[in-house]
Automatic annotation (TrEMBL):
InterPro entries: Compl-Cell_Adhes-Reg, Sushi/SCR/CCP_sf, Sushi_SCR_CCP_dom
Name of the protein in question: Complement factor H-like isoform X1
Keywords: Disulfide bond, Glycoprotein, Membrane, Repeat, Signal, Sushi, Transmembrane, Transmembrane helix
Domain Sushi: 25-89, 90-149, 150-215
Leader peptide range in chain numbering: 1-25
Cystine pairings recorded for this chain: 60-87
Transmembrane spans: 238-258
Keyword rRNA processing in annotation: no
Domain of life the protein comes from: Eukaryota
CDD domains listed in its UniProt record: CCP
Length: 294
């Protein structure tokens, strides 16, 4: 009996190395040192045991996509096979075409990769609605924009900006709405003058500033200069002689009489009066011979 037990023990000791060589060791943990932007899948992260031959799935980090290589590794005799997966930065590509909308790339023409940003710009005459910037993320471009045509209200006379003490003289009333770039022209009522630009325009911020109609200052009226009125007399031949001519004649006559009296000095009063009367009468007779006063 004892001999039989010894024989069995020796047999087991002989086979022990064979069993030890055929049993392979398991991998203790998932790999921790991976290439840049390569990570374990969600399933591998929560897995606790990795027996020999276990296959673990890999994937690219957020914002990266597979470029080449196998996306799995295997536990082989207690160690993991080499990581072959290569990941590259995600490229969102050009954004979709939107009417009247263009984009400005902040990182140049190639600025369409993960985390790059672009700015949305509307054409003149249109207003941006929505996101002013878009960003390339893991699932593509994030942003939503549209361009709305700029209008400043209905093209009706009673809805246009009113000017106090003024009126509209030109406006595009042949359309439904006042659009970007349209203009309206004003003028002032009587006794008012316009200050500022007489035309306003529809812009992206609404109408430009209205002009003003201010009261025109009253200037003092000038008294018209009176022209001298001349009296005239008619002559027999149809001509006219001005009254001042008669005045000059009598003044000259008086001077001549005084001159004569001064030279002689001893005229008798009666004699002087007679001679002066004769002289005056003679001058008057001569004048009547030539003029007939009407």
């Amino acid at each position: 009996m004892v001999r039989a037990k010894r024989s069995m023990l020796q047999s087991l000791m002989t086979l022990a190395p064979f069993f030890l060589c055929t049993v392979k060791a398991e991998c203790p943990t998932a790999p921790t040192e991976l290439d840049n932007n390569v990570i374990l899948s969600d399933e591998a992260v929560v897995q606790n045991e990795f027996p020999d031959g276990s296959v673990v799935k890999l994937e690219c980090d957020n914002g990266y996509v597979p470029e080449e290589g196998n996306n799995t590794i295997t536990c082989d005799s207690g160690s993991w096979t080499k990581v072959e997966l290569r990941c590259t930065r995600k490229n969102c590509g050009p954004p979709k075409v939107i009417p009247h909308l263009t984009f400005e790339y902040q990182n140049g023409e190639n600025g369409t990769y993960f985390r790059d940003r672009i700015r949305a710009i509307c054409e003149p005459g249109f207003q941006l609605v929505g996101s002013g910037h878009w960003q390339c993320l893991n699932h593509g471009w994030k942003g939503k924009s549209a361009c709305k045509e700029i209008m400043c209200g209905a093209a009706q006379l009673d809805t246009l900006p009113a000017l106090e003490n003024g009126r509209i003289i030109k406006a595009p009333l042949d359309k439904e709405h006042i659009q970007f770039g349209d203009s309206i022209q004003y003028s002032c009522s009587d006794d008012y003058h316009l200050t500022g630009n007489d035309t306003i325009k529809c812009t992206e911020n609404g109408y430009t500033e209205l002009p003003k109609c201010e009261v025109t200052a009253q200037r003092p009226s000038k008294t018209p200069k009176k022209e001298p009125i001349e009296s005239s007399v008619s002559v027999s031949k149809g001509a006219a002689i001005a009254v001042p001519v008669l005045a000059v004649f009598f003044i000259v006559s008086s001077l001549l009489i005084c001159h004569c009296a001064g030279n002689r000095g001893s005229y008798d009063t009666q004699e002087g009066s007679n001679k002066m009367g004769k002289l005056t009468k003679r001058k008057s007779d001569n004048f009547q011979d030539h003029f007939d006063v009407v």
